[in-house]
Amino acid sequence: MKFLITGGAGYIGSITNSVLQKAGHETVIYDRVACRKSKVGVQTESIVGDLRDLSAIQKVFKTHTFDAVIHFAASALAGESMLRPHEYFENNILGGLNLLEAMKDSACKNFIFSSTCAVYGYPTKTPVTEDETIKPVSVYGASKRMFEEILAWYETLYGIKIGILRYFNASGAALDGSLGELHVPETHIIPIALDVALGKQKEFSLYGNDYETKDGTCVRDYIHVLDLADAHILAASHLRSGGASFTVNLGVGRGYSNLEILSMIEKVTLKNIPYKILPRRAGDPAKIFADNTKAKEFLGWTPKYSDLETIISSAWKWHSFLRKEGS
Question: Domain spans of the chain?
Fold first, then answer.
């Protein structure tokens, strides 16, 4: 198949591109950031462009014929979204809307959307199923939910088939450490704790140890980025073969506490991770993890790399590589 990958220069996009390339698929990356050939592979065409420019993305569909679009491009920090709502709504909604407008007059009618468990807000029960009430509590979550609704209309009006993948916590890196997670600023627990292991930070900040969980710290579902990539390929194959549109949760189906994460990082890195306990952050639920039954049954998807040690080990290889490279 031939894929258009928006946001393909990013963390999940670049790794998904690599997996698609290794599986023999053809890919084109569209991103505001230029991609190094060492990152995306010599067989990937990389186009620098902004989805908020309708004419620019329309040109891509005039010069290429795609079997499926995988839409990663989005602003994705919940806390930041509350401070910069205009940027988040503009990028996440207008950018996606322009992509659909360019796509609707093309031969490509298969759209895979990178969504999020943030659409659920504070779930009423765990594990979280796709039937959980939709009630986002951040601009980021709201922007993703709004675009899910737009997608439903474009299916009704233009016959575009939709696969909505609601991620829980994407984590880990390519197993050889060649591609991984790097955000500025970084807000995710694993890369921040690995920076402590590398001596880039003095200590880890642990927000709250009095939650109603087994050790008092927040519990989250961590899914390896390679398992996410595999789900996108299965989703595209499902739609291209005539399958119905769908929405699924992508998670491991269990949660790990913050202290369990730190403990595994110490085991993998052989480094002590000092931490300080700070007050709870507003908006952090005690625990959230997925019910992934539908993804398994509907797509035939099974996480292969999402045991915690593999997640941490692959991320450690990546962060160690960054240090050697001077990044």
Answer: 2-171+222-250, 189-220+253-325
